[in-house]
């Protein structure tokens, strides 16, 4: 039987193996890695900033045009984007070119419920696409994690009941807080990406299987959980091995591995 896998969270910034590669080669590297792991579709999230190592949403869209296996979600930051970015993103949304928007509180020191994000929230509601929110650890010491704590997502969810929200990274390490926000708010989802740098160790894998099992026991049928890796930061192969250790029936597995993403991003 054919198994479908959608990785809803990958990057093509110049991290890890992609460092110093031209954009075209980064996309090729993504396609090759997807193919060797039987991943059918992936969603590239553009960054909160644009520089040599971080291509713009427009550049990514041109580089992946006509590639049915790769979709794009546009990154937005209060500090680095302006009114013209909002207009540009609205155009992409109108034409179905982007599948959602992503904000990065913690990296830019704003709470996700800051009124300055409201324009982005309104766009997501108008075009019925999800808003992805980075939560949890920021890796860089310049990030401030209080802005990235998943508890802050509750305000956004309650004040914008029509908005669909994806908490990225399960709020790692605040899994408990994340599961309460998911349980409480029907409009909030979470992806399991970015829980490891590179490959899982046996110990860490066991630890996370326990955390996700607790999560599912608390929050119920996983209509809200999305498979994602954060590739190239996390290894696709190691991630697939990790999810194979979760005790899920076929229906639950299908929801997490592709059905929730198909429904939410309209793939
Ligand atoms: Zn990421």
Automatic annotation (TrEMBL):
GO molecular function: carboxy-lyase activity; hydrolase activity
Domain Amidohydrolase-related: 80-267
CDD domains from the UniProt entry: metallo-dependent_hydrolases
Entries under Gene3D superfamilies matching the protein: Metal-dependent hydrolases
InterPro entries found in the cross-reference section: ACMSD, Amidohydro-rel, Metal_Hydrolase
Coiled-coil parts of chain: none
Keyword Hydrolase: yes
Pfam families: Amidohydro_2
Keywords for this protein: Hydrolase, Lyase
Protein name: Amidohydrolase
UniProt organism field: Candidatus Nitrosocosmicus oleophilus
């Amino acid at each position: 039987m054919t198994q479908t896998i959608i990785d809803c969270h990958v990057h093509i910034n110049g991290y890890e193996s992609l460092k110093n590669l031209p954009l075209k080669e980064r996309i090729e590297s993504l396609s090759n890695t997807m193919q060797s792991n039987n991943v059918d579709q992936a969603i590239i999230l553009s960054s909160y900033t644009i520089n040599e190592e971080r291509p713009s949403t427009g550049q990514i869209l041109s580089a992946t045009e006509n590639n049915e296996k790769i979709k794009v979600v546009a990154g937005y930051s209060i500090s680095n984007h302006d009114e013209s970015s909002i207009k540009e993103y609205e155009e992409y949304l109108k034409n179905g070119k982007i599948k959602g928007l992503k904000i990065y509180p913690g990296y830019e020191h704003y709470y996700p419920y800051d009124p300055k994000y409201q324009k982005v929230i309104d766009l997501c509601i108008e075009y019925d696409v999800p808003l992805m929110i980075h939560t949890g650890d920021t890796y860089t010491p310049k990030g401030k994690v209080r802005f990235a704590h998943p508890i802050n997502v509750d305000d956004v969810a309650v004040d914008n009941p029509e908005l669909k929200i994806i908490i990225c990274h399960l709020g790692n390490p605040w899994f408990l807080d994340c599961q309460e926000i998911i349980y409480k708010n029907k409009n909030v989802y979470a992806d399991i990406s970015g829980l490891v740098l590179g490959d899982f160790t046996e110990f860490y894998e066991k630890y996370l299987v326990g955390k996700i099992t607790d999560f599912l026991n608390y929050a119920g049928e996983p209509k809200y959980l999305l498979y994602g890796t954060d590739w190239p930061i996390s290894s696709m192969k190691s991630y697939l091995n990790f999810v194979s250790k979760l005790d899920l029936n076929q229906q639950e597995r299908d929801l997490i591995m592709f059905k929730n993403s198909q429904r939410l991003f309209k793939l």
